[in-house]
Amino acid sequence: RLTEGDCLGGLDVAARSGDVDLATNILQRLQRHGYALREQHLEALVEALVRRGQWARAFVALATMRRGGMGRGAAPLRVVTRTVVAAEDSEAEADAAFDALVAAPAEAADACVLDALVAGLALGGHVEAAEERLSTWYERLRVERTEASYVAVLRGCTHRRNKTVAERVLAQLLDDEALAAPREAYEQMVLVALLQPNYEDAFVYLEAMKAHSMLPSWRTYAALARRCARVRDPRAHVAVREMRTLGYVVTPAL
């Protein structure tokens, strides 16, 4: 008798290889053998469709999952971002995915899906395009931006060392009266500032975090300490001292 474990193994292969036919056949076999389709089964189909570039079918499948109370996890969204990043032309791939999303059932389009596409654009090197889509895409689909929407672009700015766009995106977030800039937004600003020849603004954003009663993470302090140590800036010792005060582990490398 075919076991669910056998099918899960096959679905994993289908998802990673973008084999839509294999994923579909396995789902049909599961149903024929009396198994109820669960979220992890259908996520494999969505991933296979995304990897194959069949965005319209992927978003329809995602909408079907959501009608059944599924599809809210991070797995399908991560593969959306990774697929856009890995595309030969990330901007064209993201635009094609968005066009498919416009035509998909309304429940498939929410801030999380748009965030995943915008993140793919930004991490794929198109931070200016991501900044522009942050306005046009959400408005066209009448989807409210969230803090995570802005952070998705800020991560890409850090990845591409683009402080200019990061500053504009943070300004938009701060101007949005419905939202409050989260800790990660400020941390991304610290990190992107540290990647510049003049990294003084990193300390401005660090102090802004503290002023908003936000606790900088170990990663933020470690990045500050390493950047300062590289140019023998004595503030490296200050960063390490604050880490110890907060109970963070100070590794020998620091």
TrEMBL record:
Repeat recorded as keyword: yes
Family matches, as InterPro entries: Mito_RNA_Proc_CCM1, TPR-like_helical_dom_sf, TPR_mt
Task: Specify the domain of life of the species encoding this protein.
Answer: Eukaryota
Q: Which UniProt keywords apply?
A: Repeat
Indicate the segments forming the Pentatricopeptide repeat-containing protein-mitochondrial domain, all copies: 4-130
Keyword Repeat appears in the UniProt entry: yes
Q: Which Pfam families match?
A: TPR_24
A biological process (GO) of this protein is: RNA processing
- Report the GO molecular function annotations: mRNA binding
Q: What's a single GO CC term here?
A: mitochondrion
What name appears for this protein in its UniProt entry?
Pentatricopeptide repeat-containing protein-mitochondrial domain-containing protein
